[in-house]
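Exercise: predict the structure of this protein bound to nickel (II) ion.
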Amino acid sequence: MRITYYGHACFFVEIGNKKLLFDPFISHNPLTKVAKVDISKINPDYILLSHGHEDHLSDAFEIAIQSDAKVIAVYEVQQWFEKQGIPGHGMNTGGKWKFDFGTVKLVNAVHSSMLPDGSYGGNPVGFVVTNDHEGTFYFAGDTALTLDMKLIPMICPKLDFAILPIGDNFTMGYDDAVIASNFINCNTIIGCHYDTFPPVKLDHSAAKKTFSRAGKNLFLPEIAMTFNIKKK
Ligand code: NI
Ligand code: MN
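Solution:
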Protein backbone atom coordinates (compact mmCIF):
# COMPACT_ATOMS: atom_id res chain seq x y z
CA MET A 1 0.00 0.00 0.00
CA ARG A 2 1.19 3.47 -0.88
CA ILE A 3 0.27 6.08 1.73
CA THR A 4 0.62 9.86 1.75
CA TYR A 5 0.16 11.94 4.90
CA TYR A 6 -1.59 15.30 4.44
CA GLY A 7 -1.42 16.44 8.05
CA HIS A 8 -3.69 16.14 11.12
CA ALA A 9 -5.77 12.98 10.45
CA CYS A 10 -5.71 13.15 6.65
CA PHE A 11 -4.23 10.17 4.80
CA PHE A 12 -4.32 9.21 1.13
CA VAL A 13 -4.12 5.42 0.69
CA GLU A 14 -3.74 3.60 -2.63
CA ILE A 15 -5.22 0.12 -2.29
CA GLY A 16 -6.86 -2.29 -4.76
CA ASN A 17 -6.15 0.09 -7.66
CA LYS A 18 -8.29 2.76 -5.99
CA LYS A 19 -7.44 5.90 -4.09
CA LEU A 20 -8.93 6.51 -0.64
CA LEU A 21 -8.75 9.83 1.17
CA PHE A 22 -9.38 9.86 4.92
CA ASP A 23 -10.58 12.92 6.87
CA PRO A 24 -9.45 15.80 4.62
CA PHE A 25 -8.54 18.90 6.64
CA ILE A 26 -5.89 20.56 4.55
CA SER A 27 -6.66 24.13 3.43
CA HIS A 28 -7.42 25.27 7.01
CA ASN A 29 -4.54 23.35 8.59
CA PRO A 30 -1.79 25.88 9.42
CA LEU A 31 0.89 23.15 9.07
CA THR A 32 -0.04 22.14 5.51
CA LYS A 33 0.59 25.69 4.33
CA VAL A 34 4.23 25.29 5.32
CA ALA A 35 4.37 21.89 3.60
CA LYS A 36 2.59 23.39 0.53
CA VAL A 37 -0.11 20.77 -0.08
CA ASP A 38 -2.17 21.63 -3.17
CA ILE A 39 -5.67 20.19 -2.73
CA SER A 40 -6.53 20.69 -6.42
CA LYS A 41 -4.14 17.81 -7.16
CA ILE A 42 -5.77 15.37 -4.70
CA ASN A 43 -8.17 13.19 -6.66
CA PRO A 44 -9.42 10.18 -4.70
CA ASP A 45 -12.06 7.64 -5.75
CA TYR A 46 -13.49 7.57 -2.23
CA ILE A 47 -13.46 9.94 0.75
CA LEU A 48 -13.81 8.19 4.10
CA LEU A 49 -14.99 10.42 6.96
CA SER A 50 -14.69 9.23 10.57
CA HIS A 51 -17.09 11.85 12.00
CA GLY A 52 -18.57 15.28 11.40
CA HIS A 53 -16.02 17.59 13.03
CA GLU A 54 -14.53 20.26 10.79
CA ASP A 55 -10.94 19.16 11.37
CA HIS A 56 -11.92 15.92 9.55
CA LEU A 57 -13.99 17.08 6.60
CA SER A 58 -13.47 20.75 5.82
CA ASP A 59 -12.07 19.96 2.33
CA ALA A 60 -14.30 16.95 1.62
CA PHE A 61 -16.89 18.85 -0.43
CA GLU A 62 -14.40 20.58 -2.71
CA ILE A 63 -12.32 17.43 -3.26
CA ALA A 64 -15.45 15.33 -3.91
CA ILE A 65 -16.63 17.83 -6.56
CA GLN A 66 -13.27 18.03 -8.37
CA SER A 67 -12.64 14.27 -8.30
CA ASP A 68 -16.16 12.74 -8.44
CA ALA A 69 -15.23 10.84 -5.29
CA LYS A 70 -17.88 9.00 -3.30
CA VAL A 71 -18.23 9.56 0.44
CA ILE A 72 -18.04 6.54 2.75
CA ALA A 73 -19.20 7.47 6.24
CA VAL A 74 -21.67 6.79 8.98
CA TYR A 75 -25.22 7.23 7.61
CA GLU A 76 -25.90 10.71 9.04
CA VAL A 77 -22.64 12.16 7.70
CA GLN A 78 -23.07 10.47 4.30
CA GLN A 79 -26.66 11.75 3.98
CA TRP A 80 -25.52 15.30 4.81
CA PHE A 81 -23.19 15.13 1.78
CA GLU A 82 -25.82 13.37 -0.37
CA LYS A 83 -28.23 16.28 0.24
CA GLN A 84 -25.54 18.59 -1.16
CA GLY A 85 -25.21 16.46 -4.29
CA ILE A 86 -22.26 14.29 -3.29
CA PRO A 87 -23.04 10.59 -3.76
CA GLY A 88 -21.76 7.96 -1.38
CA HIS A 89 -22.35 4.90 0.71
CA GLY A 90 -23.77 5.21 4.22
CA MET A 91 -22.95 2.64 6.87
CA ASN A 92 -23.07 2.32 10.64
CA THR A 93 -21.01 0.94 13.50
CA GLY A 94 -20.42 -2.80 13.29
CA GLY A 95 -21.31 -3.07 9.61
CA LYS A 96 -19.04 -4.04 6.76
CA TRP A 97 -19.37 -3.63 3.00
CA LYS A 98 -17.38 -4.98 0.08
CA PHE A 99 -16.26 -2.16 -2.24
CA ASP A 100 -14.27 -2.51 -5.48
CA PHE A 101 -11.00 -1.93 -3.57
CA GLY A 102 -11.71 -4.21 -0.59
CA THR A 103 -13.86 -4.49 2.50
CA VAL A 104 -14.56 -1.67 4.95
CA LYS A 105 -15.78 -2.40 8.46
CA LEU A 106 -16.97 0.38 10.75
CA VAL A 107 -15.79 -0.01 14.33
CA ASN A 108 -16.60 1.95 17.45
CA ALA A 109 -14.87 5.23 18.27
CA VAL A 110 -15.45 6.93 21.61
CA HIS A 111 -15.75 10.62 20.73
CA SER A 112 -18.55 13.00 19.62
CA SER A 113 -19.82 14.08 16.22
CA MET A 114 -21.60 17.14 14.89
CA LEU A 115 -21.58 18.47 11.33
CA PRO A 116 -20.32 22.02 10.59
CA ASP A 117 -23.88 23.49 10.39
CA GLY A 118 -24.85 21.93 13.73
CA SER A 119 -26.61 18.90 12.17
CA TYR A 120 -26.49 15.62 14.06
CA GLY A 121 -23.47 13.63 12.90
CA GLY A 122 -24.40 10.17 14.16
CA ASN A 123 -21.80 8.08 15.94
CA PRO A 124 -18.10 8.66 15.33
CA VAL A 125 -16.38 5.60 13.85
CA GLY A 126 -13.09 4.02 12.95
CA PHE A 127 -12.48 2.03 9.75
CA VAL A 128 -10.84 -1.36 9.20
CA VAL A 129 -9.96 -1.67 5.51
CA THR A 130 -8.95 -5.02 4.02
CA ASN A 131 -7.68 -6.00 0.62
CA ASP A 132 -6.83 -9.72 0.43
CA HIS A 133 -3.67 -9.12 -1.61
CA GLU A 134 -2.41 -5.85 -0.10
CA GLY A 135 -3.25 -6.15 3.58
CA THR A 136 -5.39 -4.72 6.36
CA PHE A 137 -5.21 -1.49 8.31
CA TYR A 138 -7.18 0.30 11.02
CA PHE A 139 -7.87 4.02 10.81
CA ALA A 140 -9.11 4.80 14.31
CA GLY A 141 -10.52 8.29 13.72
CA ASP A 142 -10.86 10.46 16.80
CA THR A 143 -11.24 8.17 19.77
CA ALA A 144 -10.41 7.52 23.38
CA LEU A 145 -8.75 4.28 24.34
CA THR A 146 -11.64 1.83 24.59
CA LEU A 147 -11.98 -1.86 25.42
CA ASP A 148 -13.93 -2.24 22.16
CA MET A 149 -10.55 -2.15 20.38
CA LYS A 150 -9.97 -5.68 21.75
CA LEU A 151 -12.69 -6.87 19.38
CA ILE A 152 -10.74 -5.85 16.28
CA PRO A 153 -8.28 -8.80 16.26
CA MET A 154 -11.25 -11.11 16.97
CA ILE A 155 -13.43 -9.92 14.10
CA CYS A 156 -11.02 -8.55 11.46
CA PRO A 157 -8.03 -9.94 9.55
CA LYS A 158 -4.60 -9.37 11.18
CA LEU A 159 -3.65 -5.70 10.97
CA ASP A 160 -0.54 -4.75 9.01
CA PHE A 161 -0.60 -1.26 10.47
CA ALA A 162 -2.85 1.14 12.36
CA ILE A 163 -3.34 4.91 12.25
CA LEU A 164 -4.03 6.11 15.79
CA PRO A 165 -4.59 9.60 17.25
CA ILE A 166 -1.87 10.39 19.81
CA GLY A 167 -2.22 14.13 20.45
CA ASP A 168 -4.27 13.92 23.68
CA ASN A 169 -6.82 16.56 24.83
CA PHE A 170 -9.43 15.75 22.10
CA THR A 171 -8.46 12.07 21.69
CA MET A 172 -6.25 9.56 23.46
CA GLY A 173 -2.64 10.53 24.03
CA TYR A 174 0.38 8.39 23.21
CA ASP A 175 0.40 6.51 26.54
CA ASP A 176 -3.12 5.27 25.90
CA ALA A 177 -2.28 4.65 22.23
CA VAL A 178 0.40 2.13 23.33
CA ILE A 179 -2.32 0.24 25.23
CA ALA A 180 -4.58 0.55 22.16
CA SER A 181 -1.86 -1.00 20.00
CA ASN A 182 -1.79 -3.95 22.43
CA PHE A 183 -5.58 -4.27 22.27
CA ILE A 184 -5.53 -4.33 18.45
CA ASN A 185 -2.46 -6.62 18.37
CA CYS A 186 -0.44 -4.36 16.06
CA ASN A 187 3.17 -3.18 16.36
CA THR A 188 3.29 -0.79 13.40
CA ILE A 189 1.57 2.43 14.39
CA ILE A 190 1.30 5.68 12.45
CA GLY A 191 0.51 8.60 14.74
CA CYS A 192 -1.89 11.40 13.83
CA HIS A 193 -3.98 14.23 15.35
CA TYR A 194 -1.02 16.02 16.94
CA ASP A 195 0.81 19.37 16.59
CA THR A 196 -1.98 20.98 14.50
CA PHE A 197 -3.27 23.17 17.35
CA PRO A 198 -1.66 24.15 20.71
CA PRO A 199 -3.77 21.68 22.79
CA VAL A 200 -2.46 18.72 20.74
CA LYS A 201 1.23 19.67 20.71
CA LEU A 202 3.26 16.47 20.93
CA ASP A 203 6.61 15.68 22.55
CA HIS A 204 7.83 13.57 19.62
CA SER A 205 10.81 11.95 21.34
CA ALA A 206 8.81 11.06 24.48
CA ALA A 207 6.06 9.51 22.32
CA LYS A 208 8.57 7.49 20.27
CA LYS A 209 10.42 6.33 23.41
CA THR A 210 7.18 5.20 25.04
CA PHE A 211 6.34 3.09 21.98
CA SER A 212 9.84 1.63 21.58
CA ARG A 213 9.94 0.68 25.29
CA ALA A 214 6.78 -1.33 24.62
CA GLY A 215 8.46 -3.04 21.64
CA LYS A 216 6.42 -1.08 19.12
CA ASN A 217 7.23 1.22 16.26
CA LEU A 218 5.64 4.68 16.17
CA PHE A 219 6.02 6.33 12.79
CA LEU A 220 5.43 10.08 12.54
CA PRO A 221 5.54 10.93 8.81
CA GLU A 222 6.30 14.45 7.63
CA ILE A 223 3.37 16.26 6.00
CA ALA A 224 3.18 15.47 2.24
CA MET A 225 5.46 12.44 2.72
CA THR A 226 4.64 9.26 0.76
CA PHE A 227 5.66 5.82 2.02
CA ASN A 228 4.87 2.15 1.41
CA ILE A 229 3.73 -0.55 3.81
CA LYS A 230 3.70 -4.16 2.63
CA LYS A 231 1.35 -6.92 3.74
CA LYS A 232 3.11 -9.10 6.33
NI1 NI B 1 -13.26 15.18 16.42
MN1 MN C 1 -10.42 15.86 15.45
